[in-house]
Amino acid sequence: NAGVTQTPKFQVLKTGQSMTLQCAQDMNHEYMSWYRQDPGMGLRLIHYSVGAGITDQGEVPNGYNVSRSTTEDFPLRLLSAAPSQTSVYFCAISPGANTEAFFGQGTRLTVV
Amino acid sequence: GNSVTQMEGPVTLSEEAFLTINCTYTATGYPSLFWYVQYPGEGLQLLLKATKADDKGSNKGFEATYRKETTSFHLEKGSVQVSDSAVYFCALIFHSGAGSYQLTFGKGTKLSVIP
After folding, report:
1. Mean pLDDT along residues A56-63
2. Of the segments A35-44, A61-70, B3-12, which one has the largest average pLDDT value?
3. Is residue B104 within 8 Å of residue B4, measured between CB atoms?
């Protein structure tokens, strides 16, 4: 039972490059979210989805796009990477609107 | 809006010492409260939770009680071990209904336990 799988685990990008962080789940949970973790800042919500075809912005959405075409996958796209997007990114899933989240292992992204 | 404030670290304790990590929150209504733990190089794991006032969450010797009157959810453990060294996050989710999902985190407290 993998739960939440994030790929890649590590990535280095040059400023202006684009990439997609992948998140896949095998628990059939409706709610999926992306967070970024920065030193001294805790986790901040980027985007979330309450089901296939439905997405919404979180606290820090600028510079990121998401889509949710299936229940299983929730990719996060960086269209033009900036050094300020250097961070550790976590995908999380949840079975309901008022319940806890279960996290993937994270993707460490460095933009140079 | 909703927010979580937890004590800043780092916290360094000797093995078998008593641990308290303070967490207070601001929320409209009655949120559910959580403690997550993050071991080095890993993602966050749910440690314990409480969904209503006076509930006590517990797991692996850790406890926290949902105090509505003081809007607090302090994490405690009677005797810490070296293996408890990690970053601990307090978090809340507000019962905002269908169509929304807002899990709000504190900034984290790093705990180091020395033998």
Report:
1. 94
2. A61-70
3. yes
